[in-house]
Specification:
Low-confidence stretches: 1-25, 27-71, 145-177
Shape: globular
Oligomer: single chain
Order of helices and strands: EEHHHHHHHEEEE
Number of domains: 1
Structural class: alpha+beta
Number of helices: 7
Strand content: 15-25%
Length: about 180
């Protein structure tokens, strides 16, 4: 895939606390070597996301994230922990999208989510080899990446639009903060 230069129409994503919570939680779990089984991870997600400890972690770690301390710590963890962390990020990301679609009350939320999940799985390798993925679902934007703050997207390539459903996915090759 050859990236298209879209710097003239750069898209800036707002850094949402929820995104940071997901990143922090994924990093904490992976560095501690904590594993959650596939059969019950969905039951744990709402509790983990709503946990006051996550909000506390956000407050405590805000300055560290701003000063890239967290990014340096992430770069120093073992490969197996990083692999586990990537899995957590993907799981939490899917849950976040699902939760957002449910709140919108869209009648075809299950179909929309299944299509979106298929797109994420299809471009899994591209996500690993890129700076991140930006997905827009029903006018809501989600940022999935190893970086902590959603950047301004300068280089991206449109991957797929799912029929009449307003879903767009971009693989991001280069970021600028």
């Amino acid at each position: 895939m050859t990236p298209n230069n879209t710097s003239s129409t750069a898209l800036t994503l707002e850094p949402l606390p929820f995104d940071i919570h997901v990143e922090l939680l994924a990093t904490i779990l992976s560095t501690q070597g904590i594993a959650i089984g596939h059969s019950y991870e969905w039951h744990l997600l709402p509790l983990l996301v709503a946990s006051p400890n996550i909000c506390l972690a956000w407050d405590v770690s805000r300055s560290a994230i701003l000063h890239r301390v967290a990014a340096e710590q992430l770069a120093s963890i073992k490969d197996d922990a990083l692999t586990l962390r990537r899995r957590y990020v993907r799981v939490f990301f899917r849950f976040k999208v699902w939760q957002s679609l449910m709140r919108l009350g869209h009648v075809d939320v299950c179909v929309t989510y299944r299509h979106l999940d298929a797109v994420i799985r299809q471009h899994y390798r591209a996500w690993e080899d890129s700076a991140g993925i930006c997905i827009a679902v029903w006018k809501r934007r989600f940022w999935l990446a190893p970086v902590y703050n959603p950047p301004t997207l300068e280089w991206s390539q449109f991957i797929r639009s799912l029929g009449a459903e307003p879903i767009a996915l971009c693989i991001v090759y280069e970021v600028s903060f």
